[in-house]
Amino acid sequence: MPLTTRSALAVRGVRTPTAVRRGPGAGPSDDGHLVIDGANVTLPIDPGSPYVVRDGRIYDGELDLGVAAAPVRRPAFYDLTTADGVRYEQIALLHGADVLASTVVQTCIRYAEAERCRFCAIEESLRAGSTVAAKTPAQLAEVAEAAVRLDGVRQMVLTTGTTAGPDRGAKHLVRCVRAVLDAVPGLPVQVQIEPPGDLDTIDELKAAGATSIGIHVESTDDAVRRAWMPGKGSVPMAEYEAAWDRAVAVFGRNRVSTYLLIGLGEDPDELVAGAASLVERGVYPFVVPFRPLPGTLAVRDGATGPTAEVVADVTSRVARLLREAGMSGADQGAGCAACGACSALPAAGG
Ligand code: SF4
């Protein structure tokens, strides 16, 4: 799919009644899940979009955009329930056609209005009853086994809200990875953490069997970090840099990634320069358009997403940096960069 088409779809979304979709929750997306030309793609589902999925294709009005598209259907494991009465769907969700994802702790110490990331809705899905506050290692193992067996899941992403301890939630992820891999040996698993205080925790995540790790900064510009992430943005960039460097030493080059959000008001040249410094460190900058999600402070305050032109421009420049460095998302082995669905990078050769 051409990058311009992918970027327009990311910004305008599509109309389709049937795709599996996550509600607003952790991080920056509540998109619907589709398979487009054989690849996972997440797109906003918007009844007002000019683009529609029809007869296995995407149309702009009557114009066939020339891409094959199929909504991801509800997986079989969603209909199961643990012995203690928790629906599997409340423990982990299908992302794309083959990624299982869970927010293992659905609360965040930074969720008070003065601290909260303005694009995030982590506790909204908890309030809506669509998930539970904390997932145990045993629950995650049970759901992973079923999702692999029944629905062909091929990798797993484990993220967490920030907890009060000095590890910010990373230690619980160590236990979760161990339990999942006991149940499904060899399943590629990515963990997503804040810098964990004691950097040895990164070694523990690797020793537990994690394939790759995301340490998500969202922007490398301190002014943007303070404006959009008052709590998380107070963690000094030096802590992120130390954590990325340790992670690259432990997991390897291009087994570490970070999100960078397009559309937080950052100058595109500075965003791309930040991405370049990450690539130099061996960290994959997963550039993703900011989406204004219901329930977020951003929407309450009237924030809007980036234009398709900015998405295409930044994405194409970051993809070029990645290609020149020989870093592909697929080589991450697991995680968002390996999945690629939430970014236009795969359409740009990144
Ligand atoms: S890129 Fe990450 S958040 Fe997006 S669908 Fe894939 S695994 Fe889920």
Automatic annotation (TrEMBL):
Keyword set, alphabetical order: 4Fe-4S, Iron, Iron-sulfur, Metal-binding, S-adenosyl-L-methionine
Taxonomic source organism: Pseudonocardia broussonetiae
Tree of life domain: Bacteria
InterPro entries in the record: Aldolase_TIM (IPR013785), Elp3/MiaA/NifB-like_rSAM (IPR006638), F420 (IPR034405), rSAM (IPR007197), rSAM_MSMEG0568 (IPR016779), rSAM_sf (IPR058240)
Domain Radical SAM core: 92-331
Protein's recorded name: MSMEG_0568 family radical SAM protein
GO molecular function: 4 iron, 4 sulfur cluster binding; 7,8-didemethyl-8-hydroxy-5-deazariboflavin synthase activity; metal ion binding
Pfam families referenced in this protein's UniProt entry, alphabetically: Radical_SAM
